[in-house]
Amino acid sequence: MDDTEIDPVAVIADLNRITNPGGIDETRVVELGGVPQVVSIRGRRRDNPVLLMVHGGPGTPLAPTAWMWQRPVEEFFTVVNYDQRAAGRTHALTDAEVVRPTLRVDRYTADAVELAAWLTAELGVAQVAVCGHSWGTAVATLAVIARPDLFSVYIGVGQVISVAAGEPASWRWTRDEAVRRGLSDAVAELDALQPYPGDPAALLEKIIVERGWVQRLGGFGAGRDGCAFYMDGDVLSPDYTTAERAALAAGNALTSEVMIPQLGDLDLGRITSFPVPMVQILGRHDAMTPPGPVREWVSRLDAPSVVVEWFEDSAHMAMYEEPGHFLVTLLEHAR
Questions:
Q1: Comparing C-alpha atoms, which of 232, 179, 177, 292 is closest to residue 60?
Q2: Is the pLDDT score of 4 beyond 80?
C-alpha cells in the first residue's frame, strides 16, 4: 500500500481494539446530576478491579489521548474515563447555557460519586479505585471524602491543594527558571502579573499568561517547550469525530471561564483526615501544580496509608511522560 493511503487514526483504532473474548470496550451515555455524560469502559478482563479516571482542566478530558498510556493498564484494571459535564463529547449533548449554571465544584464532586456508585452496580464490584489528574484531583479527593465506602484507594497525579498555595509556587518556579535562562521578556511578563494570583475574578486572564510560560519552560512536559502530544493529540483520537473535537475546545473555554474564578475558594489543605489509602504521584518538574504544597499537606494528613511516588523525569503529565513507571505504581499500590 502506498504510504499516502494510510490513515494514522485508523492504525491507532486498530491497535486500540480489544479482541479477547473476556474483554470490555463500551462507550455509554450516563446521566449524572441531570446531565448526560459520556463514559468509556475498557479492559482485558471483566473481573479486574475498576480504575476510575477523573480528568483535569477543568474541561480537558483524558479520553482523546488515553491511548498513549492506557493500553498496558487495561491488562490489570478496567479503566473508566468520562468526559465531565460541559467537557469534550459530553459538551455536545447539552446546551451550554443550560449546563453553565450547574458548573460548581460541589456538582462535579456529586457527579463523580454518582458515577462510582453506577459503576459498582453496573460492573458488579464493591468499590472502585479512583485516580484524579490536575483539577480532577480536587473532584476525586472530595468524592472520596463524601462517599469513602465507594472507593478502595485514591491516586493523585498533579494534586491540586489551593490557589493560595499552588499559584505563588508555580509563579516563583517559572520566574526563577526564566531568570536562570536569561529570558528578560518572560521575567517582565511574569512580574506584570503581580500581585499573583490576586483577585479571583481576574485569575483566568493572569493564569493564561503564567501557564504559557510554564509550558515553554518545561513545567508542563519535562524538558519540552510545550505539550503538543497532549494539547494536540486529540487529532489522532479514534474515538472523537471532528465535531466532537470542536466540542472539546468549546467545552474547555466554557469551563475555564466559569470555574477558574471559583477555585479561589477551594482549599484542600483544610482536610486533615482522609478515609482511604492515598498514593501521590509527584512530577519532579511539575510547575502547573507544584509538589511543594502537596508534600506539606500529606505530611500532616491522617490516613490509613500515604505513598509518595516521585516521577523524576516528569512534569505535570506523569502517565504520559513515564507510562511504565505509572503502571508499576498502580500495580504496587492500587491493585
A1: 232
A2: no
Q: Give residue 87's Cα distance to chain centre.
A: 12
Domains with residue ranges and CATH for the chain: 3-333 (3.40.50.1820)
Question: Which residue bears the cell 474483554?
Answer: 23
Lowest mean per-residue pLDDT among 33-37, 104-108, 230-234: 230-234
Q: How far is CA 142 from CA 100, 132, 161, 163, 213, in A?
A: 21, 11, 12, 16, 30
Cis peptide, bond prior to residue 261, ω within 30 of zero: no
Q: Which cell goes with 132?
A: 484524579
Residue closest to 200 by CA, chosen among 163, 251, 172: 163
| C-alpha span between 33 and 102 (Å, rounded) | 9
- Cell 465535531: give the residue: 243
Question: What whole-number distance in Å separates Cα of residue 297 and Cα of residue 289?
Answer: 13
Residue with cell 509563579: 171
Contact call for residues 116 and 86 (beta carbons, < 8 A)? no
d(CA 313, CA 230): 17
Q: Which residues pair with 132 in a beta bridge?
A: 54, 156
Mean pLDDT score across all residues of the chain? 96
Backbone phi, psi, residue 192, to 5°: -70, -15
Predicted local confidence at residue 1, as pLDDT: 52
What grid cell was written down for 85?
459535564
Give the model confidence (pLDDT) of 229-260 as tens digits: 999 999 999 999 999 999 999 999 999 999 99
pLDDT value for 2: 60
Residues 309, 300: Cα–Cα separation, whole Å: 17
* Cα–Cα distances in angstroms (integers) from residue 245 to residues 1, 65, 235, 259, in the given order: 29, 12, 8, 21
